[in-house]
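Today's session is about reading a structure prediction critically. Students often jump straight to the picture, but the first step is always the sequence itself: look for stretches that repeat, for charged clusters, for runs of hydrophobic residues. Only then move on to the predicted structure, which in these notes is written as discrete structure tokens rather than atom positions. Here is the chain we will use throughout the hour.
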Amino acid sequence: MKRLADVRLLALLMVFLVAAGCASLTELANLQSRIQEEGYTETSVYHRTSNGVDTLTISASTTAKDDDGERIARIVWDTYPDEVDQLVVTVNGKANSASHGQMEQAFGPRKINPQGSGGGSVGGWVAGVGLLLLLLLGGVIAVLVVRSRRRTRRIQLMHQQPQYPYYKQP
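Below is the predicted structure for this chain, in token form.
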């Protein structure tokens, strides 16, 4: 019984985590589509956070030989809703990078308000509250199960036949 409750709790937690991650994956897929609409092929987009630094890595191919990835950087700056501290763009095997400050200097203030990765979005807030409620519910259930098992054990002990001492025959 307890094992089944643990499995259900784990499954519910996984649903919350997957739902929170799907929003980020959707934004990456949308960004990749916007880049492809600009004529780039073989695109890949990867967002990672390490020690609080959000790095967006994009690689793409194009027929233009002198493309340095500035159009891709502009697309990211104007349309990508997550925070970007460092952008690395590789076009036709040639890599260029820019920091948040460099992009702000080149393109001006962002046209969108970045969601960031600190859970400031509505989805992150809902997931956090849901997780908290899930933990509280799990704690209440655990306390009730432990109390029920103790009570059942006490009742079983009261109804047991007393053990007679073992005597050797003379």
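Discussion point for the tutorial: The two ends are 49 Å apart (CA to CA).
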